[in-house]
Amino acid sequence: MSKVMIIDDDQDIIDSISMILEANNYTVVAKIDTDNLISAIESESPDIILLDIVFPEDAQAGFKAARKIALQENLKHIPVLILSAVNQLNNLGFSFTENDISHDFMPVSGFIEKPVEPDVLLDKIKSVKKNI
Amino acid sequence: MKAVSSEHIIHCIQDIHVKELVKRLNWSVTIRWYYIAFSSLLIVFVYFLAQDHAVSFHFEFLIIANVFLFCCNLLYQYQLRYSYDKCLGTLDLRYYLILQIITDYLALTLVVYTLGSIETPIILMIIPNTILATLFFTPRQSLIIAIFGLLMVISPLILEYFQLIPVISIFNHSLSTSFKNIVLASPTLLSGYIFILFTCVIFCWYLLCSITSRLIKNELELERSYQDMIRLDKEKTHATLRSTHELKAPLAAIKNYVYTMNAGYAGDINDKVLKIINRIGKRCDYLLNNVTDIIKLGNLKSYIVFDAKLEEGPEKEPVNKNYKQFYPINIKQYISEFILNYKTLSHEKNLTIKLNKQFSDKDSKHKNHDYTIMANDENLQLIFINLLTNAVNYSHQNGLIEIDISKKQSNQKQLICVSIRDHGIGIDKQQINNIFEEHFRTNNAAQFYEGGTGLGLSIVKVCSQILNAKIQVESTLNEGTTCTICFNMCKSGDSSHE
Question: CATH topology for B307-497?
Fold first, then answer.
């Protein structure tokens, strides 16, 4: 049974995604901020991380967290999927695309746009798990 | 020999002051080449003239001055290339400028001595270098440079006065030589002459300083405004990101619940409730699209600035002042790839998207180049996604969408026009002029497709303004609509702006 860690400031997103994942035999742990993130990940040892970008205190907290995780020798193997309502489909001049993924700038495994259909979410998680 | 081109150097060096300084240094090198060529011709001419009239003249000094200038200028040209390669800062370039000014003063001193330290007005040739100095040095530094230059060019006169060097002149037996002898014999006259020279140079320096300080002040103000603009743009982007997130996040959460319930993760739901949930989902989609479109439109509009001068003209034209770079795009290839990527849009209604013959023609490379426009992917994508989405949304089931590309000539401009034609519900002719208005939707469009925001064509219009393209819509009610967007064809020179 794989463990998914959802890091999102929106409790409703955590709840709805948890319902989908738990029904598909995933164990879900959640965190609503990026404080003490590294120790939280170390103690939970998730298989996949779903990470939001915009948090109340910092609009780029998600990216910063992803970079922190990538720098940890013991955590960098965990795939991180960005989960955001502001992404490449918006074309707003600050949108992110899969092309922006890079070791230095955006060390993540992929993007998921919120809202996300259950099948899309499960497929994305499966494809990331396959690549581990 | 050609000096290093300014554009070439500017491409490397971004800083505005360095750019300006390099430009002036480049000019200075070029002007020196012209001077060397002109003075060499003059020496030859005067030489033959002197031969005919049996006049003795010290050509060797002029030749030495020219050879000296030639060698130094070669070196400066190499230095300019070096400054381009190494992207030197303002400080290093100023050293080069001082070196160039000193070289000019040395050559000028020799020329002044040869031609006559009083007889010719050549002494005033220190003024061009004084201009350069006032442009790139502080007033104090430029004054020191000007006085230093003057001291150098009058040094032959002083040395002649103290009889340390022989008195020579281009005019051997003329009145001016007698005048020179009188001046040299009288310390008062000599001091008066030097005083007048100093006064002239200091007056010129003061005049130039007051002009250049005003210019520099304006330039600094412009620079400050530019920096403010960049800061505001960053703040705006940050605020837009925040507001987009704040507006979209709750809707995304609601929609996520809808997906979850719809897929049965929240247990069994009766049909009536499921119907209501789906309606909630659709309204959520509408709000999500609307929020995205409103912010998108606001963002795009900030890239358009209407030039007041052009508004007085017969045709009001927006001036593109966005800071995004345009690059050559082969529109034919772009549309082909775009349709491949977005073909799924047509699946729900089982629509056929047909590209005209032009797209499948395997033209030569040269012919394909004719379909190149200056644009960027972001604006093109917004234009075509909105036009194609409209064509799909307002087409009937199993309908046909035709995409056509053609070339046109308008006002001596070569245009490339892309048309998207649907056979859907069409638009009433009386409403055609309103369709670009924000949030405008015709009644039959709103009844036929609920999800529209009425912002798609407004976004297309703004994007086409940014790209300097023209959009035209032709439609017949119940027959279909054709949207045509015409881009200026890329001139052969434009392709290098990538």
Answer: Heat Shock Protein 90 (3.30.565)
